[in-house]
């Protein structure tokens, strides 16, 4: 009798001995290996909330739907996601938002294709990390109070089809790296305080159909291909001397 009990006990403890590591292992696996899509979503949500916290009070109030109880960022105001649930479009326009882009974590949005912050009160400069938005097609920062120079990293965004930086306080020269955006059709940078000569590299923009840089203090020679593009476009204001 006792021997059966002993055997059972022995079996049970050996079972436990094998089961405990298995349990510990599976708990560990479950907690650490959430799918990459979920990790991206959490990182994007965190980054948006951190940026929101850097904006002025009224802007934070305006973005009250940006909260974790409201679920995924895909449901938040001005945010759209792709089919995989990753943030693809950020459109926060005409909303009186006030703050800077310094706390915007560009590397956290690898799938962003559209960033439209048009007609707000964003100030400060354009961080060089904007070059991290490798899939960005549309960039619209028009009608804000953005200052400083255009970072040369803009030349890394070779998916861009539309850039509008018009009506800001941008200074300095147009970076030569803009010429790297060889497939870019549309570039609006009018009504800033840009100076210097137009970089010859702009001549590499073979597909440009609309380019506006009036009401700056630009000088110099218009690269020949741009001149052709301008000939069937509306360049107003002072044309650089030819
Ligand atoms: C912004 O909100 C915080 C906390 O609600 C408050 O302490 C601060 O005074 C507010 N600032 C302005 C400028 O309204
Ligand atoms: C969070 O967002 C939801 C959905 O927009 C909203 O109903 C709720 O009031 C928000 N919560 C806070 C604390 O702002
Ligand atoms: C995001 O913006 C792009 C470019 O404007 C557009 O083609 C696409 O439909 C938008 N995506 C969503 C989910 O709205
Ligand atoms: C800019 O946004 C304000 C609201 O903040 C709106 O009243 C105004 O009409 C907008 N301007 C343009 C040109 O859309
Ligand atoms: C960005 O938003 C403004 C204001 O709503 C709109 O007029 C403009 O067409 C948008 N830009 C792009 C590229 O969609
Ligand atoms: C992001 O941009 C910065 C500045 O251009 C660069 O140093 C960094 O390597 C980039 N990171 C990624 C992940 O692309
Ligand atoms: C962009 O352009 C600059 C200046 O023309 C050049 O030095 C650089 O190698 C180019 N490539 C990238 C990816 O920026
Ligand atoms: C150029 O201006 C004319 C007259 O103002 C207008 O009809 C035409 O649509 C404009 N073209 C472009 C490409 O904006």
Automatic annotation (TrEMBL):
This is Uncharacterized protein. InterPro entries: LRR_dom_sf (IPR032675), LRR_N_plant-typ (IPR013210), LRR_R13L4/SHOC2-like (IPR055414). Residues 104-210 form the Disease resistance R13L4/SHOC-2-like LRR domain. Keywords: Cell wall, Leucine-rich repeat, Membrane, Repeat, Secreted, Signal. Belongs to the polygalacturonase-inhibiting protein family. Residues 44-82 form the Leucine-rich repeat-containing N-terminal plant-type domain. The keyword Repressor does not apply. Residues 1-26 form the signal peptide. SUPFAM superfamilies: L domain-like. Pfam families: LRR_14, LRRNT_2. It is found in: Membrane; Secreted, Cell wall. It comes from Hevea brasiliensis. One of its GO terms (cellular component) is membrane.
